[in-house]
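Sat 14:20. Reprocessing the chain from the morning session after the first attempt stalled halfway. Input below, unchanged.
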Amino acid sequence: HAHTDDLAIIDLWGGSERRWSYKQLDARMENVARLMLSLGLTPGQRMALILGNRAEFIEVFFGAMRAGVVPVPLNPRQSPATLEFMIRDSGCSAAIVDVDAAPDALPVVGGMTDLTKVALGAAPSGWTEYEAALKATPTEIDVTGAVGGDGIAFQSYTAGSTGRPKGVRLTHRGMLWSIRSTQEHWPSSPDATGLVAVPLFH
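Finished this time. Tokens:
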């Protein structure tokens, strides 16, 4: 809580700059968690994230975790066939697609009648528009207690360079251990700034 007003993210997506404090990011992640539950998703269900390198990736990724929903981050540049395989293989109940970063994913997700569909950007007919839904989500939805330490935090996929991509399930407890170990061996100060120049789905 000592750093809530500090700068959390400088987002340069699309050539314009956005700056969010930790307080703003936390509030948006909490709203994402409420949105997940308002869409009818339940802890343990998977949600495909097909998003560009933007602040919304961070808030959706961690906001879904707060609701116990398991994010499945996918490469927006994968072929439609590979995206469909990973969505089916992971058993996703929902998908959020960045209209600008992943236009080829729209028909893939759109053709899956059993998915809850969310669009970041101009939403196709029958989809939920992300930003509008986030603002309209009731604040009284309670997300506490949705997550246990041994629950799955997120499910990533291997590149598939030696065969079909394989899902890798990572627990909340394991991720917290990784954070503690990283800080122990490669400590960073609270006022440090990091440059992210790799795809966030990695």
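The beta strands are 7-11, 18-21, 46-50, 70-73, 92-98, 116-120, 128-129, 152-157, 167-171.
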